[in-house]
Amino acid sequence: MNEFEIIKQYFTGHCGRKDVIMGPGDDCALLQLPPNTTLAVSTDTLVANVHFFADMDPVALGHRALAVNLSDLAAMGADPCWVSLALTLPEVNETWLKGFCEGFFELAEYYNVALVGGDMTKGPLSITVTVHGSLPEGKALRRNGAKAGDGIYVTGTLGDAALGLQQQLGNITVAEPHQAFVRTKFEHPHPRILAGQALRDIASSALDLSDGLLGDLAHITTASDLRAQLELELLPLSKAMTDTVKQEQAWQLALTGGDDYELCFTVPEMHRGQLETALAHCGVKFTRIGRMVAGEAGVELTADGKPYQLAARSWDHFRSGV
């Protein structure tokens, strides 16, 4: 099969949205935004043996490639609309292509995302995805809106994807009852789209956790010119985590492991009651883990009310190579 036969067989026929005037097949896609809306765009590249194992199940990889980009839209509170895909393949493997498309388009269909274009070329395996979303004007969740006194929250549990990666690398032995859970957390991240939309009128700032809570929260503190105080005993940890590693290692994985794709956000005290109602309708667990305070941008850690110094970051290379 040549490039255009591959595109025709595997990547056409996925433009079911009425706002797609022209999808794949011309020089550009033509898309229609509703009045009084803002366009949100995010691009991410995944490279074999850097962001994923080269022999990773293609169904899981197709899901993951789209999910990590949709997570960026969730962090802005955007509604997913369209996606473009640039795929570089070392060879034509139709079994791999079929599996990748199964995972990719299953998630795209779930969130009503239309594939509107992209590119295909030969070379080392890599995947570049650009997602487009929309949201009402002035409603985007940004990193620079936090205020002193705001609570700091996260969705879900932290560190499970990092635990799943270390299991696959053979660095940590996870008990059999938890193995499938942590592997799924790494290979099948769940973008918090509904939670992001529910936070539009409640949160003062937000982002998704791709590189670890400690580093990602620092982006909010820098953009908002504030300091974050985290209480480590409040970090939400799964049973898989607490059954597998000791407390300090669990905190380290939760803070620096990365690949959680949960949301971290700040909420003023006046909206605290609204928060519980809004996220209850999304079926998402959330946890308050600290607060924003005046001071030099950065993140302070405390354990049982005392300053805590994180141990050497042995997991810094989680995302630089697998």
UniProtKB/TrEMBL annotation:
Entries under SUPFAM superfamilies matching the protein: PurM C-terminal domain-like (SSF56042), PurM N-terminal domain-like (SSF55326)
Signal peptide: none
EC number(s) reported in the record: 2.7.4.16
Keywords for this protein: ATP-binding, Kinase, Magnesium, Metal-binding, Nucleotide-binding, Thiamine biosynthesis, Transferase
Chain sites annotated for binding Mg(2+) 2: D44, D72
Domain PurM-like N-terminal as annotated: residue spans: 25-133
Amino acids binding ATP: G118, D119, R143, S210
Pathway in which this enzyme or protein is active: Cofactor biosynthesis; thiamine diphosphate biosynthesis; thiamine diphosphate from thiamine phosphate: step 1/1
Positions bound to Mg(2+) 3: D27, D72, D208
Keyword ATP-binding listed: yes
Residues annotated as domain PurM-like C-terminal: 147-297
Molecular function GO labels: thiamine-phosphate kinase activity
Reaction catalysed by this enzyme: thiamine phosphate + ATP = thiamine diphosphate + ADP
Family matches, as InterPro entries: PurM-like_C_dom (IPR010918), PurM-like_C_sf (IPR036676), PurM-like_N (IPR016188), PurM-like_N_sf (IPR036921), ThiL-like (IPR006283)
Binding residues for Mg(2+) 5: D211
Pfam families reported for this sequence: AIRS, AIRS_C
Residues given in the record as substrate binding sites: H51, D259, W315
Other comments on record: Reaction mechanism of ThiL seems to utilize a direct, inline transfer of the gamma-phosphate of ATP to TMP rather than a phosphorylated enzyme intermediate.
Similarity field: Belongs to the thiamine-monophosphate kinase family.
Function text: Catalyzes the ATP-dependent phosphorylation of thiamine-monophosphate (TMP) to form thiamine-pyrophosphate (TPP), the active form of vitamin B1.
Name under which the protein is recorded: Thiamine-monophosphate kinase
Species of origin: Oceanimonas smirnovii
Lineage, uppermost ranks: Bacteria, Pseudomonadati, Pseudomonadota, Gammaproteobacteria, Aeromonadales
Gene name, Swiss-Prot/TrEMBL: thiL
